[in-house]
Every structure is written in C-alpha cells, then in structure tokens.
Design a protein that fits this description.
Helix content: 40-55%
Bound molecules: nicotinamide-adenine-dinucleotide, zinc ion
Largest sheet: 7 strands, mixed
Number of helices: 21
Structural class: alpha/beta
Amino acid sequence: MTTWSSPPAAALSSGRRTGALAEAAFVVCLEARPETILARLTARGDTEQLDRPLLATDDPLARITELKAARQHLYALCDWAVHTDGLTPEQVAAETIRAHDERAAEILAAAGRVEAMTAPAAPAPARTLHAVPEGAACMVGAASGEYPVFVGWGTLSGLGGLLRDAGLDRYAYVISDETVWHHLGDEVEASLRAAGIEFDSYTVPPGEASKSLDSASGLYDWLIDHRAERGHTVVAVGGGVVTDLGGYVAATFARGIPLVHVPTSMLGQVDAAIGGKVAVNHPRAKNMIGVFQQPRFVLADAAVMRTLPEREIRSGLAEAIKMSLLDSEDHVAFLEDNAEAILKLDRDATVEAVRRSVCFKAAVVSEDEFETTGRRSVLNYGHTLAHAIESTTGYSRFRHGEADGIGMMAAGRMSVAMGLLAPEILDRQRALLERYGLPTNADGLDRARLLAAVALDKKVQGKKVRWVLLEGIGRPVLRDDVPGEVVASALDSVLD
Ligand SMILES: NC(=O)c1ccc[n+]([C@@H]2O[C@H](COP(=O)([O-])OP(=O)(O)OC[C@H]3O[C@@H](n4cnc5c(N)ncnc54)[C@H](O)[C@@H]3O)[C@@H](O)[C@H]2O)c1
Ligand SMILES: [Zn+2]
C-alpha cells in the first residue's frame, strides 16, 4: 500500500507520474484543514518549516489556504481521502488501513480509474492572491476563483459599494420574495442608487413553492425582456428559496451570468448562501434540478434578521448547531454559552454565530467544492433522516432545521450504538438542540415510510445508505455499514 500525503503540486502535474502512481498503488490523500496544517508546523517548534519559501509570508495561513485550493483539483484525483484533523498519527494509519482493506479492491478494479488519473489535470484556476477585502469574514476557494463572505451588522447599505468594488456595476437584476422585499426593498434600492448602479427587481411569492422551474421560467422571460447579458449581475436577496432560485437562474441564463447572494434568513446566512449549490425542485424530488454556481461574493447582514419570525430563527440555527458539532469543541461551547443572546439576535453574539458557521462551511467547501472526496458530504449530518421526515410529512409540518434536529439525534444515536461516540456527547447535542427550542423527537411518524424515503434519498451510494456519524465533536465519519437494526432502533428512539 502506498499513501500519498499532500504531494507537491509539481509532482502531480504530469500525467505520466499520476499514471505511475495510479497503476502502482491505492492512492490515499491525507487531508487537513489549513488551520491544522499551520498548527502542526508551528507545534513542531520547527520554525524552519515556516521558512519554506512557499510559506515565507506575513500570513502563512492564508498562503496555505491558497496553495491547497490551487492544488485541490489534483488532490481530488486520489482514490481515498482521510481527513486527519483531530486524529493522532495512529488513528490516521488505522483509518488508511481500514480504507485500504474495505475499499481498495473495488476501487482499483473500477473501469477507467487509471485513465481518469492520467488525464491532463485541469489547469489551476487563476486566482487573485488573497487580498481579503476589508470586512470579509472569510474566503471561499472555488474552481471559478475565490470569493469573500461578508458578515456584519447593518451592512446591507454597503451592497452597492461592494458591487462596484467587485466590478459588477453595469446592471443588477435583483431577485427577492415579496415578504423580504417588503422589509428590505427600500434599503437595497437606496444602496444601488447611491452607488450609481442601474437595476430592476423581481419578486416571487414567499415559500418553497417558488423554487420551481415555473418560477425560473418567469425569471428567464424577465431577463430576456430586459436584454440581460453576461456582463450584468443577478443579486439574490432573500432566504434559501431565493438564493437557490436566483442562483439557478444566474447559472443557467446565457450559460451563466455573475451572481451575488444577500441571504436574509438565518438558514440562508449560516448555510444556504455559502458553497455554490443552487437548485430548483422537481415535482417529484426536492433540489433535483441544479448546478454548482459560486457567487462573486456573499453579503450577510445579521441585522436584517430582526424581522424574521422566531421560528425561522430557531430553525436556521439548527444548521449552525450542526456546523459546530462538525467543527470543534470551541464552536459548540460558543453556541452553548450564547444561546439566549443569539436567540434574541444580540448584535455581537449573532454576528459571531453566523461568522463561525460561514467560515466553517467555507473551509469545507473550499476543500471539496464538487462533493467528490467525501469532505463536503459531512455537511449532511442529520440530513439523511431530515429529508425523509420532510418528504413524508409533505414539507408542511416541520421547518427544515426542525427536521434536522430530529435527524441529528438519530445519527447521534447510531454513532453511539456503533461504538463511535461517547453517550455524553449525544446528551450534550440533545441539550444544545433543546436550548435553541428545536425538537429532538417527534410523534406520529411512520418508521417504514421513513426508511423507504431514506432509501430514495440521493445520498444513497450504490444500494447502501451512507450515514454521516460522529466519532466526537469535530470528527464526522461517513459510514455505509450501519446495520439495519441499528438504524431501526435509532429511528424508534426519535419517533416516540
Ligand atoms: N444551497 C444550499 O446549499 C442550501 C442549504 C440549505 C438549505 N437550502 C435551501 O434553502 C431553502 C430554505 O431556506 P429558508 O429557510 O431561508 O427559507 P425561505 O427562503 O423560504 O425563507 C423563510 C421565510 O422567511 C422569510 N424571510 C426571509 N428573510 C426574512 C427577513 N429578513 N425578514 C422577514 N422575513 C424573512 C421568507 O419570506 C420566508 O417566508 C430550502 O429550499 C433549502 O432547500 C439550500
Ligand atoms: Zn440543512
């Protein structure tokens, strides 16, 4: 078995060499987040490591992030990735051996594997080197380039200026929903006018039903009527429905025109507007018609959530809780300590909660933009069951985040039953969800129908359901070997 650990890009850039690797070995990439890499270099006390020419910069973390993003298309060629954050060297070795023993034979036998690895790698995308714009919480590294996510309080009035700074000032097509536009339309219009940007706006009725091909079609008509072209920008101002719909339209109109997200709901700010997944629903399957389209920037003004109904705030915060459990002890402790302030939308606590979620998701997405290595899939913690709960209840009984709470409890139970997670962590997860007023179980759901819906979910790989489980806070794992009786008993535990 040969492993391949953070190889220098030059060593991989030749198809001949990747071919030799591919033919000779099961290629495992040892992944780590930039913060982890920097911490490891620093912890060795080995300042010479930081004197590497490539890291000789005032901001080595930014440099590591940038190098990683630029090489990601090469790392993505590996057969398997082990996410080493939080693991000891022994655990990394054990995980690598497990992957080899369980998966190597099947993966090595796959048709076209060597050819895929040997194909000339896509050129590293052109990037502007890391001038993180003022006020940006973090950057998302994407194949189409890097983009900033701005998180602040009272910053919506700066939208026009940001569009101008980004060179997106020719014409703005603002897409929103009627409720959001009622609250925020004047401020958005004033900001665009002040920056001298011409614009037009289009609103859809609020609610999931607007995330449809019909709405998209209406938007295409509107864009054609206005002679929209590729130098113009779609600005999506609203919750996840609007950013998904607006993003899908921007991605597909004229083969893609620039997109800016202005998320206004909690779910939108902490999750939906980050990462470039945009979609509309098919009558038979949610989010089925979609693409990856990264925005040019995201502007999250937490102050606009003051008009958001309380249930929407709580439900959106389920995603923040999920991010924290996937991220770190420190992140979980922050949400535990600040629940009251965040639920009241206290300025500093809310901005910090949004910032932490956004930056965690940005880091994950930057490592695995197209969900190929498994890193991004961990964001589905709790979601396999949540989607089943939502679909079997007709998307009406639960808000998405509420279904997530129940889904996370089931996934946590499975983690404990599989011997992966300490029961105390599951108790902590439950307490955290309860603190934010989120359900951890529900009555009246039918186990057989839920299981059937789980099997239909698009996260099923082959014929096996792949669950995101936890081995601890900040240590998610993907498992497709959860026995049926463990799933059944975890479901029963949340269905009473
Ligand atoms: N693309 C992704 O990665 C991703 C991730 C998670 C969820 N989603 C999608 O997001 C959607 C759900 O998003 P959502 O929960 O934001 O729903 P939503 O867009 O329907 O917003 C919820 C409600 O809040 C209202 N609202 C939004 N901002 C407001 C404000 N500032 N003041 C007052 N009211 C406001 C809306 O009008 C709506 O009635 C789903 O379609 C889901 O599939 C996408
Ligand atoms: Zn979700």
